[in-house]
């Protein structure tokens, strides 16, 4: 056995303890290796990850929901490695989550305040949905308090804030033009807070789990890019890990949904796939227990995890955006051909007139 | 008496033809990349791969040629100098602008005579140089996305956040059409001047020499 393999092992007693809790060694090892791989860590870190999860240092979590569709909660509830129940009961102490908690009304708000006081500067704040700002933020209030106030209060005292889903990260659909509620992202609402963005519509629960595992293992959030997204999940283009990439390079494209090329799994580039300009680990991590993701199931990427995707990635089924100021049917190429043709016609006409004109060639005019 | 005058030095001619070649190659491959229309029966072929490889190769040639031409504006003769591209900066330049414009619009019989670029051509090239710059910046910004931690991505990141990804794609695509429009105009104007001035304008971009009667100046 090489030293590398030895280091990649999980201590026997940890595996035993998980077995007594009803989690098989196989499942636990699988979880630890998936987390290590998702975080792009060397496999030698697996033992350390197992120890970190085992240690009784569960941080409190306050999960807030504002202008969103609860899609990220839904995705989280379907987290498979480990199951959401296991995360909630064993690893994290989720003290406040409107959709999941038993408490309601004043009790719920009291639970949030208690957590904030008791674990000041130590709890994790998770925000789902964007935050409206116009008219004092009246478009989203909880217990008479605006989303903007709640976010500032909760995130301002948190050890770390994780924005889940595109709405919380970049404003998402509520912030798409014309943005009547003045919706903004969490990092804009709380400029001073440490915010980690996990965009996606919905977020990928595996990335959230991996982020939390990273936090438990190293006591800090993972390294991020210039948009505040962890590099382990958003450091590569979808296009570069896509299973249809070979068809892209070959030059084989589905021309329409259901045509011969589409049925053969050819590249969805001509159907408006935004994979070449979207950064996410969808092709490797996938959704729904790792079974599939949009491109695998035959639909092009719509770039849902990119900033302002609703405004900039549309039309979803065309390569290029429409040219602003022209009719919706006027594509860039039609206008371009028009420019070229108009130039040719204009100068052709000029040439005819010039040819018919006399006395303007030869020696030139001097200033009189 | 006609004089043989050396107008376009070899760096000017060389960069000119490299840029012509690049624009043709970049437009042909770019149109394919934007809308891949060739029918490819075999999965083992590499049509898009080659189109992109050629596109990126010529992109580097284009960018380097353009930078060399810009540098030559500060080292070359007076016909190549940067002053030729801002005729609006001088009084004489303004006279030439108005004179050339009137000649083009058939309001005047005779064109104001210059040895190098005429005033309108100078303005057109300034505009084209701006388009070249935008095209190179947007192109390398899109190209740099293959490696978000790489050199190009770090240099061009501000443009991506400023214009959005798709906005840059559209800009890059539309500038191609504007440059094709310019090329049509450019060839026509060269031919027109060749015919009207009878000084070897078209030939000068190959050999560098024009034939001038000093009495015309």
Structure description:
The complex is a heterodimer of chains A (368) and B (217). Chain A has 368 residues and is α/β, with parallel strands linked by helices. Helices cover 41% and strands 8% of the residues of chain A. Chain A is built from 18 helices and seven strands. In chain A, the strands form two sheets. A five-stranded parallel sheet of chain A has the order 2-1-3-6-7, with helices on both faces. In chain A, β4 (141-142) and β5 (145-146) form a beta hairpin. The model of chain A has no long low-confidence stretch (mean pLDDT 88). Chain B is mainly alpha-helical. In chain B, α1 (10-34) packs across α6 (165-197) and α2 (47-72) packs across α4 (119-143). The two termini of chain B are 12 Å apart. At the A-B interface, α14 and α18 of A face α2, α3 and α6 of B.
Descriptive tags:
heterodimer, A: 368 residues, five-stranded parallel beta sheet, 18 helices, 41% helix, B: 217 residues, mainly alpha, two-stranded antiparallel sheet
Précis, in short:
The complex is a heterodimer of chains A (368) and B (217). With 368 residues, chain A is an alpha/beta fold.
The helix fraction of chain B, in percent, is 55-70%
How big is the Rg of chain B?
20 Å
Q: Number of helical runs of chain A?
A: 18
**Which band does the percent of strand residues of chain A land in?**
5-15%
Low-confidence stretches of chain B: none
Biggest interface in this structure? A-B, 58 and 59 residues
Outline the secondary-structure elements.
The complex is a heterodimer of chains A (368) and B (217).
Chain A: H1 3-7, H2 12-20, H3 25-38, H4 46-54, E1 60-65, H5 71-77, H6 84-91, E2 93-97, H7 105-118, E3 124-128, E4 141-142, E5 145-146, H8 147-156, E6 160-164, H9 165-170, H10 186-189, E7 195-198, H11 205-218, H12 231-234, H13 238-241, H14 245-250, H15 260-263, H16 282-285, H17 309-312, H18 332-356
Parallel strand pairs in A: 1-2, 1-3, 3-6, 6-7
Antiparallel strand pairs in A: 4-5
Chain B: E1 3-6, H1 10-34, H2 47-72, H3 91-104, H4 119-143, H5 151-163, H6 165-197, H7 201-207, E2 209-212
Helix pairs in contact in B: 1-2, 1-6, 2-4, 4-5, 4-6, 5-6
């Amino acid at each position: 056995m090489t030293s590398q393999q030895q280091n990649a092992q999980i201590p026997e007693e940890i595996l035993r303890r998980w077995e007594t809790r009803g989690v098989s060694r196989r499942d636990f090892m699988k979880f630890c290796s998936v987390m290590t791989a998702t975080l792009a860590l060397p496999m030698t870190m697996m033992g350390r990850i197992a120890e970190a999860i085992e240690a009784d240092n569960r941080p409190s979590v306050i999960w807030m929901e504002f202008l969103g569709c609860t899609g990220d909660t839904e995705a989280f509830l379907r987290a498979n490695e480990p199951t959401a129940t296991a995360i909630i009961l064993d690893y994290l102490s989720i003290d406040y989550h409107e959709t999941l908690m038993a408490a309601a009304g004043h009790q719920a708000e009291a639970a949030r305040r208690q957590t904030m006081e008791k674990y000041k500067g130590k709890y994790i704040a998770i925000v789902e949905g964007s935050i409206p700002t116009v008219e004092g933020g009246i478009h989203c209030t909880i217990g008479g308090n605006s989303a903007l106030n709640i976010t500032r209060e909760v995130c301002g005292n948190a050890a770390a804030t994780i924005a889940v889903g595109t709405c919380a990260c970049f404003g998402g659909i509520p912030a798409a033009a014309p943005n009547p509620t003045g919706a903004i992202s969490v990092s804009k609402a709380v400029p001073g807070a440490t915010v980690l963005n996990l965009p996606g519509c919905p977020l990928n629960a595996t990335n959230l789990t991996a982020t939390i595992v990273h936090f438990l293992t190293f006591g800090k959030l993972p390294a991020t890019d210039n948009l505040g997204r962890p590099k382990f999940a958003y450091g590569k283009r979808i296009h570069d890990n896509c299973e249809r990439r070979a068809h892209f390079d070959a030059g084989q494209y589905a021309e329409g949904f259901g045509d011969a090329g589409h049925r053969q799994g050819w590249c969805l580039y001509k159907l408006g796939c935004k994979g070449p300009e979207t950064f996410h680990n969808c092709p490797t991590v996938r959704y729904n227990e790792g079974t599939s993701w949009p491109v695998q199931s035959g639909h092009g990427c719509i770039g849902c995890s990119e900033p302002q995707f609703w405004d900039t990635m549309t039309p979803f089924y065309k390569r290029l955006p429409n040219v602003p100021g022209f009719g919706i049917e006027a594509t860039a190429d039609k206008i371009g051909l028009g420019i070229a043709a108009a130039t040719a016609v204009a100068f052709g006409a000029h040439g005819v007139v010039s040819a018919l004109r006399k006395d303007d060639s030869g020696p030139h005019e001097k200033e009189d | 008496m006609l004089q043989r005058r050396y107008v376009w030095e070899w760096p000017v001619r060389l960069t000119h033809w490299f840029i012509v070649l690049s624009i043709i190659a970049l437009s042909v491959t770019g149109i394919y990349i934007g809308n891949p229309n060739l029918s490819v029966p075999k999965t083992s072929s590499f049509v898009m791969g080659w189109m992109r490889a050629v596109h990126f190769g010529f992109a580097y040639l284009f960018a380097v040629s353009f930078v060399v031409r810009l540098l030559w504006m500060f080292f070359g003769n007076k016909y190549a100098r940067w002053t030729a591209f801002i005729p609006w900066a001088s009084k004489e330049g303004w006279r030439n602008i108005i004179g050339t414009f009137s000649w083009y619009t058939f309001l005047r019989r005779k064109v104001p005579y210059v040895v190098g670029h005429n005033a309108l051509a100078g303005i057109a090239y300034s505009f084209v140089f701006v388009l070249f710059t935008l095209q190179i910046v947007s192109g390398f910004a899109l190209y740099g996305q293959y490696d978000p931690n790489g050199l190009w991505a770090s240099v061009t990141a501000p443009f991506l956040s400023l214009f959005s990804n798709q906005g840059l794609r559209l800009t890059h695509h539309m500038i191609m059409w504007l440059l094709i429009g310019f090329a049509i105009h450019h060839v026509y104007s060269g031919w027109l001047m060749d015919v009207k001035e009878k000084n070897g304008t078209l030939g000068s971009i190959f050999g560098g020499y024009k034939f001038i009667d000093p009495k015309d100046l």
